[in-house]
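To the wet lab folks,

You asked to see what we're planning to order before we commit. Fair enough. Below is the target structure as tokens, and below that is the sequence we designed to fit it. If anything looks off to you, flag it before the synthesis order goes out.
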């Protein structure tokens, strides 16, 4: 009796595919996953809700689907335009920019008018109107220091914006390549499953013909079941990566995404010294530290200038009636 055995190459490929795992680290997504627990209970309700009981249909008026030919760069470009954290950082920069002119401007002039009614009585006549206008003039250098502080606040907000962009770019690329890897893995596993089914059918036919043992059929069936389990696991990983991409793009997490197109691998020549030099020169976190140091210097300068008194110019006008008690009064007795 001849014993039927699977080709060694097919078994090796099966073990390789079944044991492969994503080269991408899922830890950066752990914080996001914590916000989406598998079950939760609403307040004042004893019912336990599960994600599987909810409809996964995206809401209406969804943005157009991404082009099937879109790669990582296209996803990053779209994320930079739509991500809420970036738009919030941009709004913050605009708000702080508008404060620079206010910080460098003089205080508003003050106008004082005495209430109308019983006014002071002089020898020349009764005082009819008492008014004044005043303007506060800060010590020279204060307005400049305030303006520089406001400008440094804008610079730090701009670095926060750059940090948000880099974070979104990194998260988008990580989610995209996780989505790409799982999509390609599913294709490979499906192709391998077709081969194993053929081997299983052939082994079953040989077993029925009495030319193979039953363990050959069982082993092929076990390998097919293992691939089915692997397909379920990788399918869940792909759904998670797609949800992360949609969230970064400010879209409903259930919005369909096209299957990523195959890419050609290329060699990258990266040198650690040059990367460290570029990071030290261009990293937003380091630049923000420099801007904060400069802001503290300007605050120290302003604190020293605040010890000096400011100048307050004022002009006062009093209107006096000419029907005084004394005919010789000239109004100098006020």
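Sequence we intend to order:
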């Amino acid at each position: 009796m001849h014993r039927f055995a699977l080709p060694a190459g097919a078994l090796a490929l099966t073990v390789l595919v079944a044991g492969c795992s994503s080269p991408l680290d899922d830890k950066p997504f752990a914080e996001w996953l914590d916000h989406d627990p598998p079950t939760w209970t609403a307040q004042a309700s004893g019912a336990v809700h599960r994600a599987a009981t909810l409809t996964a249909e995206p809401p209406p008026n969804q943005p157009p689907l991404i082009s099937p030919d879109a790669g990582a760069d296209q996803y990053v470009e779209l994320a930079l335009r739509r991500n809420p954290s970036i738009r919030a950082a941009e709004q913050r920069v605009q708000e702080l920019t508008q404060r620079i002119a206010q910080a460098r401007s003089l205080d508003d002039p003050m106008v004082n008018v005495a209430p109308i009614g019983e006014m002071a009585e002089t020898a020349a006549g009764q005082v009819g109107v008492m008014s004044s206008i005043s303007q506060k003039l800060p010590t020279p250098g204060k307005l400049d220091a305030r303006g520089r502080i406001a400008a440094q606040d804008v610079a730090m907000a701009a670095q926060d914006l750059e940090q948000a962009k880099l974070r979104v770019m990194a998260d988008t690329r990580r989610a995209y390549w996780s989505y790409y890897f799982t999509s390609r893995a599913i294709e490979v596993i499906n192709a391998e499953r077709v081969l194993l089914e053929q081997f299983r059918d052939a082994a079953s036919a040989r077993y029925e013909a009495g030319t193979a043992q039953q363990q050959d059929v069982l082993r092929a069936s076990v390998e097919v079941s293992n691939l089915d389990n692997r397909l379920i696991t990788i399918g869940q990983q792909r759904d998670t990566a797609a949800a992360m991409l949609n969230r970064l793009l400010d879209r409903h997490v259930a919005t369909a995404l096209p299957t990523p197109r195959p890419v050609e691998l290329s060699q990258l020549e990266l040198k650690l010294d040059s990367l460290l030099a570029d990071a030290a020169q261009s990293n937003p976190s380091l630049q923000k530290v420099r801007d904060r140091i400069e802001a503290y210097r300007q605050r120290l300068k302003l604190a020293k200038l605040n010890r000096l008194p400011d100048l307050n110019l004022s002009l006062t006008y009093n209107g006096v009636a000419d029907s005084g008690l004394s005919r010789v009064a000239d109004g100098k007795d006020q």
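Structural context that might help your review: Residues 1-25, 28-60 have pLDDT under 50 and may be disordered. Residues 177 and 265 are 13 Å apart (CA to CA).

Thanks,
Computational group
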